Amino acid sequence: ELRHRASPWQRNLGYPLAMLGLLALTGISVLIVCFHVLELLLDDAAMPRGIQDASLGQVSFSIFGSFGAALQVVLIFYLMLSSVVGFYSSPLFTHLLPQRRDTPLTKIIGNCVSLLVLSSALPVFSRTLGITRFDLLGDFGRFNWLGNFYIVFLYNMGFAGLTSLCLVKRVSWAAQTELLRAFGGDG
Predict the structure, then answer these.
(1) Residue 143's pLDDT is what?
(2) What are the percentages of helix, strand and coil residues in the chain, rounded to 5?
(3) TM segments (predicted)?
(4) In 10 A of CB 55, how many CB atoms?
(5) pTM of the entire structure?
(6) Alpha carbon 33 to its chain's center
(7) Which end of the chain is least crowded, N or C, by CB within 10 Å?
């Protein structure tokens, strides 16, 4: 219903550009994680431990300078939004979604706790995946399990594999649907 009410500019330009942007951000994050996996295999310094004696502003946290730092910020916001959308889309937590003008206080508290847990996990998540090396001055690199190669490696491989699988499945499913619709099949 929202698609029918949308203007032709939104339907023909806005939605495809938004979809291409989401595909690009997902692809870039998977490429960065794959690069981080290669770094993990070749160099022990790629482990997401804390940075020692690195003052803010004296050390570049990106090999691409300002552009790389801006890309890291965009990817972290993308990961934050996608984790919130994924959380509320899971069958276990769909009942937690607030309804307009009809949300009990316990549900509001549950949403606050859920968002607090997700936002607290985001720095460790982005650091473990190799998206950023910035520690947010919270010493997240002091967690003992961040020094375990196997946990970090499997975490990165799981993210890259499952995200790639979802991306391929979503894109190929949409292409199959469009091909069936174009050739007059049931679609």
Answers:
(1) 65
(2) 70, 0, 30
(3) 12-38, 58-88, 108-125, 145-168
(4) 7
(5) 0.73
(6) 11
(7) N
